[in-house]
Amino acid sequence: TTIPTPTTSTTTSSTTPCEPEVCTWSEWFDVDFPSSGPNQGDFETYQHIRAAGKQVCRQPKQIECRAEDYPDVAIQQVGQVVQCDVHFGLVCKNEDQTGKFKMCLNYKIRVLCCTPNYNCSLPVIPVITTSPTTSTTTTSIPSSTTTVTTSTSTPYISTTTSPTSTEIITSTSTTIPTPTTSTTTSSTTPC
Questions:
Q1: SS3 of 64, please?
Q2: Which residues form the WxxW domain (predicted)?
Q3: Is the pLDDT of residue 10 over 60?
């Protein structure tokens, strides 16, 4: 019996994986200037930015806010009460400030906008390729040796009533040879 093992080859298609989104930071927006008065402040909201003719993406992923006069100082360390929120932008109200002058600094913001990356190919997926392999099983039954057994008995003479009558009993036993059988099974591995 001969049974070849089907061959399976694994090919990994390597393409450079890329991000499903392309994200870029916007320009720095500073469309409002703080004015004095308790109901005033600095409002760098998406609504104000769009009203000033600038474009801001609909759903920014991140936001950065800075004081114009202190660009290297984190917004939390400037010392003013400011809302810097990715959902609406920046709001600084004069009435929320402490100290003698109670006036907001001038702030600017930028946002991270993302769009789907249509040029990104699909993630790397191993491709399993099975080459069609024919598996052949051959079973051979060896031809049996033809055995012919012949038995011949010695003639037996029966002396019953008539001495001239001779009864010869011959016994022959023959084994019929079994024909040679060859079974071939072919199967093809499906793709």
A1: strand
A2: 25-113
A3: no
